[in-house]
Amino acid sequence: MIPRVGVTRYVTPLREGGSLPGLVEAADLGVYVCKFRGAGQGVRVLVAEVLAGELARRLGLRTPRLVALELGPEIARYEADEEVQDLLVASVGLNLGVDFLPGAFGFDGEQATDPEVAARILWLDAFTANVDRSWRNPNLLLWHGDVWAIDHGASLYFHHAWGTRVTDPARFADQPWDVTDHVLESALPGLALADAHARGVLSREVFAEVVALVPDEWLGFVPETRPETLRAAYVDFLDARLGSRAWLPGEGR
Hints:
There is one protein chain. By secondary structure, the chain is of the alpha+beta class. It has 2 domains: 4-99; 105-149 and 157-252. It is 31% helix and 17% strand. The chain is built from 7 helices and 8 strands. It has helices at residues 43-58, 82-90, 115-127, 169-174, 191-201, 204-211, 227-242, and strands spanning 4-13, 22-26, 31-35, 66-71, 93-99, 105-106, 140-143, 146-149. The strands form 2 sheets. It has a 5-stranded mixed barrel with strand order 1-2-3-5-4. A 3-stranded antiparallel beta sheet has the order 6-7-8, with no helix packed on it. β2 (22-26) and β3 form a beta hairpin. α3 (115-127) crosses α5 and α6 packs antiparallel against α7. The radius of gyration is 18 Å and the shape is globular. The mean pLDDT is 94.
């Protein structure tokens, strides 16, 4: 699973995000953007971050390193902001840490982007059904001249329908994805090559390796369902999606 490290200090909230992520320091001397289990839609978003982020890494994309952050109750005691304090109290336990990229700039489209990189990001978002990489919220950073993909929590919408049971992967396998609002829509002509690259890299075995990185603590959201059962379900859904091209937009078909 992804490395575990304890939080030693809460530094500041990052109010650009709706779920109020925060900058924290950790016992490994690292600084991380902490995505809290007590925020928004809970641990499912953390699972999506790990799965989509690690798939991005397998595709050769730059995305920040991930860790699991152990947050103790003592951290909240020294926080004066009541909203933040409530969030810290609700998030005691295991949270997600995203390596902080100091000095990174938000992507605004003015910088030249490698067409191959742009097409691979577009393919990843189509594959994982990510609806949150628009011009309003690009979720891309420029760091040392390279494009880094961040914030994948809006991917893999299907697991939000897992209430009392796991749903059928067949619907997700063929579910179309709309490219029209995507920040990298101009990369559509390169999608066919990105698709060929991805299918040469990804497989059911790779999906199993990626899903194995998710901590058990985040896989208890379906009642009376064991973590290994949910892991198998994620592999089934991703494998079914890879077995189809019905979701691939434009010239990628």
